[in-house]
Amino acid sequence: MEAVIRKWQQKFRKAKEEMNKWEALQVGWVSRFSNASSIIQRLEAIQNPGNYGVLRCVKGIEEAVLQKQMDQLETTLLSMKNDLEEFRGCVLTFEKLHREGLQILKMEQSKRRIEERIGVKPCIAECLKGLSLLYEMHQSEYHLKCSILSALSSLVLKPSPGDLVALQCLMVDQPNILNNEVQHIFDVIFAEEIK
């Protein structure tokens, strides 16, 4: 039984690595979102000829500034799309870990053994539930990020400061990943390591 629990704990160590990767991606994702949001907010002012003052005498300045901002926005949105692929890779790893957990579960013949505990070590049922929750949380958050990027892209055509602020809150909060619940999962799985 202890060997089986060690296999589960290895899966959770891999899950923790993926979570660290996710958090590193999240930092860049939020930064790129802020950059894109700032550009989108400036577009209206950039397109207003009255904002150029004496620079209006420079031929093509309005078009050049607008084109530079649009190029930067395109680059930023492309980087965010690439980030989404990285987030998707994390979700696929969580899915794989969950599938492997289901395979370990299938090898257990007895329901009693699935719910059996040895000291403070978790039971198999808790391990599977934890992996399942981690997978579901990250998958839901990935889908939210896809929706946010789509919404951000549509705001280029019709900027709305209120919408940008709301999207930014969702970006930073990651509402589908409940930190207390994640910590509880790891506390249960690695209870014997907590001092």
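That was protein one. Protein two is written in the same sequence-then-structure order:
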Amino acid sequence: MAETLGERRGSLAAPLIFTIVVVFQYLSLWLQHLKKKGLKSSTEIQLRGEIQQLLKEASTLSQPSTFAQAAKLRRLAAAKEKELADYQESHKKEIKASSDLYLKALFISKVLTYLVLVCWFWRVPVATIEQQLVQPFGKVLSWRGGGILNGNVMVGIIPWLLLSTRVSKVVCRLFKF
């Protein structure tokens, strides 16, 4: 009974750990993407609309008699563009500060989760792989996992975390994020 429970825990551990690593990687990339691009707010969209409307009105006033009015609209549009640039700069600073805080919190939770996983699966195999499939890397993968048993390599938690991290980065890149 204890043997089947240990095998069951080991058989579910590898995909569960991989899923946790992929989620952390995805969240990290999403926060970095949000930090770069930012979100467009309703104020920014409204200012862009006003600028376009003013420039459209100024372009329709092309007669010599309406030149002063068109110049006034262009100056007003330039002032709105400056206001938009100032707003974008302050908004970018706010997003950078909040996303930096979220990235730090994510990093801390990632480290704590990895430490818990390492403590929980220390000297316990996370997965078993046939020795022929991982012939030159069997000893590296079985580090702190139990070695080789019945022609199977017992994969340790630290090599599994390292491998899962590398694979999760590739998986997130494949999904264009």
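Confidence is low (pLDDT under 50) at residues 1-9. Keep this in mind for the problem set.
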